[in-house]
Amino acid sequence: MVVTADMAPYALDGGVAPPVCGTAALGERVEQVCRTLLEPHLEDGEQGVGAALELAHRLPVPVGETMNLTATVATVGPTTLVCEVLVRHAGVNVARGSFEQRVVPEAELQAEADQRRTLPG
């Protein structure tokens, strides 16, 4: 994946954000790559939801550079999939982590979301 400007971290103090991949953006990409391992196994009426993300982001990767994300299945349970992820740039490990997904019935997920709704609509 190529690091784009919209992946840079936000400067909270009004300063300029560094032109590198931010940890939040990297976490989103980790979730996406792990989701690709789960989706083919979901049955009709099932949905995968994120349950836990651990990410150690050690080195910056500048905008315009390419990172390689490799996800491997670490643990499979009746309703759980845990993937380990390694992120590399120019042959160097820049981040590693894990992402846990739970398989839930779509109807239950929607009912839970509706129950927690505080805003109309």
Explain this structure.
The protein has helices at 23-38, 106-116, and strands at 46-57, 68-76, 80-89, 92-105. It is α+β, with helices and mostly antiparallel strands and 121 residues long. The protein has one domain (5-116): Hotdog Thioesterase (Thiol Ester Dehydrase, Chain A). The protein has a four-stranded antiparallel beta sheet. It is flat and about 40 Å long.
> Biggest sheet: strands side by side, in what order?
1-4-3-2
Radius of gyration: 17 Å
Terminal-residue CA separation? 36 Å
Mean pLDDT: 94
Number of domains: 1
CATH architecture: Roll
Largest sheet: 4 strands, antiparallel
Order of helices and strands: HEEEEH
Specify the oligomeric state. single chain
What fold name goes in the CATH topology slot?
Thiol Ester Dehydrase, Chain A
Which stretches are poorly predicted, pLDDT < 50 over at least 5 residues? none
> How would the global form be characterised?
flat
Q: State which percent range the strand residues make up.
A: 35-45%
The number of helical runs is 2
User: How helical, in percent, are the residues?
Assistant: 10-25%
